[in-house]
Amino acid sequence: IALVLQILPVGAAIIADRYTYLPYIGIFFIFSHWINNLLENKSVNLAYLKIPAIAALTLFSIIFCYATVQRCKIWHDSITLWNDAIQKDPGVPKSYNGRGDAYNLTKQYDKAIVDLSKAVQLKPDYAEAYYNRGLAYYFLGKYNEAITDYTSALKYNPQLAVAFYNRSGTYFTLQKFQPALEDALKARLYGYEVDQKFIEALEAGIKSTIK
After folding, report:
1. pLDDT band at 194 (very low <50, low <70, confident <90, very high)
2. What is the pLDDT averaged over residues 43-69?
């Protein structure tokens, strides 16, 4: 739980705004304590502050209610969130990879390929983006392009088990059983849970081609 609380900061999570919520408790405690002391001070005439205080509080509430509504629109789904990130900083490859992944999940594969191509353009060694684009190509039936991208992903991350597994599945679709088996075994070696029945199906496929 220490990693979740980020008491000792780990990775880029330290910049997440949710980690400011707890410190704000202290700020509001100090502010409320100051207000309480002010109200208890009999020597201070607060009558003239009543209307400005109500007006300021009302304006504050309206502004933050509006900001909350606008922010909820951005957080509507992953695509709108990444749209906002790209609009604010269009040179970040992670944003294009994130939106490309979101397009994959919503079966908008052509849009995914556009974003993921932008991601690898900005960062040519971006293994995850190559992998995600490989998925998009696979679901579009472009198996050779998918294999090329899975291979690129493995070039930059040789232990990316899921890339071995999905390249294996693509080879299987093309009935290239030997490389499919080799990739499936490598995926298992690097920790991916490969169903034994899939291994057996590949072995059977190899035997059928020998006959």
Report:
1. very high
2. 81
User: In the prediction, which pLDDT does 192 show?
Assistant: 96
Both tokens of 143, joined, read: 């198996």
Q: Give the whole-angstrom CA distance, residue 150 versus residue 144.
A: 10
pTM comes to: 0.78
Tell me the C-alpha distance between 128 and 149, whole Å: 10
Residue 136 CA to residue 133 CA, distance in Å, equals: 5
**3-state helix/strand/coil string of the chain:** CHHHHCCCCCHHHHHCHHHHHHHHHHHHHHHHHHHHHHHHCCCCCCHHHHHHHHHHHHHHHHHHHHHHHHHHHHCCCHHHHHHHHHHHCCCCHHHHHHHHHHHHHCCCHHHHHHHHHHHHHHCCCCHHHHHHHHHHHHHCCCHHHHHHHHHHHHHHCCCCHHHHHHHHHHHHHCCCHHHHHHHHHHHHHCCCCCCHHHHHHHHHHHHHHHC
| Residue corresponding to tokens 């502010």 | 31
Query: Cα–chain-centroid distance for residue 154?
Result: 20
Q: What is the distance of C-alpha 51 from the center of its chain?
A: 47
Residue 153 reports pLDDT greater than 50: yes
Instruction: Give the mean model confidence (pLDDT) for residues 171-177.
Output: 96
How do residues 112-146 score in pLDDT, each as one tens digit?
999 999 999 999 999 999 999 999 999 999 999 99
Q: What pLDDT is attached to residue 29?
A: 85
Dist. CA 51–CA 57, nearest whole Å: 10
